[in-house]
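Q: I'm writing up a methods section and want to include an example of the input and output format. Could you take the sequence below and give the corresponding predicted C-alpha cells, formatted cleanly so I can copy it straight into the document?
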Amino acid sequence: KYRPRPSQCFQCFRFGHIASQCHSKAVCGTCAGPHPTSECRCPNAKPCKSGKQCPHIVPRCALRGCGGKHSATAAECPVRQILFRRIEDELSASGSFFAAMQSEH
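A: Here is the clean output for your methods example:
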C-alpha cells in the first residue's frame, strides 16, 4: 500500500515544509556546516576537482538530535527512521496523513 512520505526542506533539512517556505538559515545537507549544500567545498589546501561527491568531506547529519556520519537525507539516519515510524503509527491510527504530520510539529 502506498504511504506518502513527509516533505523534507533542503535549506534546514527539517521535515514538514520545503525550502521556499523555510525561515531558517541554510545548513549543509552533506557536512552540516553553516552554508547551503551547493556551496560545500573540498577542505583540502589543494581542493580535488572530482565531479562526484568529494571524498575529503566528512559527512555529518544536520538533523536535530543526530549528527551521525551520514548526510541529512540518508535512509539509515536513526532520527529519520524514528520520525518516519512515528508518522507511520499515527497514520495507521488516524488514517490521515495530514493528522500524522501535525503531530510532528
